[in-house]
Design a protein that fits this description.
About 65% of the residues lie in helices and about 0% in strands. It has nine helices and no strands. Helix 6 (about 125-145) packs antiparallel against helix 8 (about 180-195). The longest helix has about 30 residues, at about 80-115.
């Protein structure tokens, strides 16, 4: 019953909070729907940490999509063996994870040491940074604990479970043999997803689509006084 709640019921509770939280936030706090850029308060550390974190997390997310949402049969049909996939995942995933880790450490250090940021930081700022740090570090721990290509294969356990969550056919028995580090990483992701709608992370869904169709902005040069006379 505990596994049924933790890996079937609880994920849907988190998804409900995630979706409902975004809807509520958009309806009641559109002016707060922003990344709350602090570039004016400090630029040097922000530029370095933000670039490392964002580029790293983009590749990490892409790797998760490839490993969890794409069935293993697709790779087999392409002639990609388990060992080949594992090596590709390590070669691409470890550098991306390291970049994201360094980036989030820099951003957290910046938030803790710059006085103007300390004075203007909200609880949501700290929650988002700490949740991201836990998720990234737990993910890196799971990766380094599974470097051996003959070890645990998440594509045959976590992958089918996640796709079952999406299709409303979740099977908690698939996670019985999952190592503890992977389960801890999954629970950390649950925490991040539940907190997401109430932090600055909502800016991820703010795609400036209207920018492509907006009217031109006309700028006029200020004429010298003698031309106006």
């Amino acid at each position: 019953m505990f596994d049924q709640f933790l890996w079937v019921v609880f994920p849907y509770i988190v998804l409900t909070i995630f979706i409902g939280g975004h809807i509520y936030r958009y309806q009641h706090d559109q002016f707060g729907w922003t990344s709350k850029s602090s570039e004016l308060l400090e630029k040097k550390l922000l530029r370095l940490g933000s670039n490392l974190f964002h580029w790293g997390i983009i590749f990490v997310f892409g790797g998760h999509v490839m490993g969890l949402l794409i069935p293993i049969g697709v790779y087999e049909s392409m002639g990609i063996s388990e060992h080949q996939y594992h090596m590709i995942a390590l070669i691409g995933g470890i550098p991306a994870g390291i970049a994201a880790s360094i980036g989030i450490f820099i951003l957290l250090y910046r938030r803790m040491t710059v006085r103007r940021l300390i004075a203007t930081s909200t609880k949501g700022d700290w929650i988002s940074l700490i949740c991201l740090l836990i998720v990234i570090l737990s993910g890196m721990s799971a990766t380094f604990s599974n470097i051996d290509s003959q070890g645990f294969d998440y594509r045959t356990t976590i992958g089918p479970w996640l796709r079952g969550i999406i299709t409303f056919r979740a099977d908690p028995s698939l996670l019985i043999a999952v190592p503890v580090w992977f389960k801890f990483h999954m629970l950390a992701v649950f925490g991040l997803v539940a907190a997401w709608p109430f932090t600055r992370l909502v800016h991820v869904f703010s795609v400036p689509v209207r920018y492509l169709t907006r009217s031109y902005v006309i700028y006029r040069k200020r004429r010298p006084r003698h031309e106006n006379l």
